[in-house]
């Protein structure tokens, strides 16, 4: 289980600039008060995704927590606009995507849009803090291509192979760039 003491004792947490972009007024207020209990005091709540994107252009946030089911701008459009805007000083912020209906295709869509962490609603602040802390301690390398800017989606997956060509597989894995 995640220990909140580790996060609360981390002095950097109190200086984090956090935005919550969620059209659900009550849940966003709940998440805000829960995060404040962890020591985060600089929290902006936007219930309108268009206004949230405007705030991202004028203020640098360290963490953005966004609902994937927002309207009229959906989560994918929000994430892509956040990551690719030249005017956005928060393009490299930790992006936590929240979704209500966990389906595999939605998870892939979220990762492909540049989300750092995915949580399923209703979510506890403990879970959100776990993902924030993980991304603060182990930040992912960002990549830029013609149609994507965000955390590198590739994972360091080790392949276990016990067949007759095992040595050849290991040589290929060792030769890969890290």
UniProtKB/TrEMBL annotation:
Native source organism of the sequence: Kordiimonas sediminis
Matching InterPro entries: CheY-like_superfamily, Sig_transdc_resp-reg_receiver, ST_Response_Regulator
Any single GO BP term: phosphorelay signal transduction system
The keyword Magnesium is assigned to this record: no
UniProt superkingdom: Bacteria
Pfam families (alphabetical): Response_reg
Modified residues (4-aspartylphosphate): 67
Ranges of residues in domain Response regulatory: 17-136
Stated name of the protein: Response regulator
The keyword Ribosomal protein is assigned to this record: no
Keywords assigned: Phosphoprotein
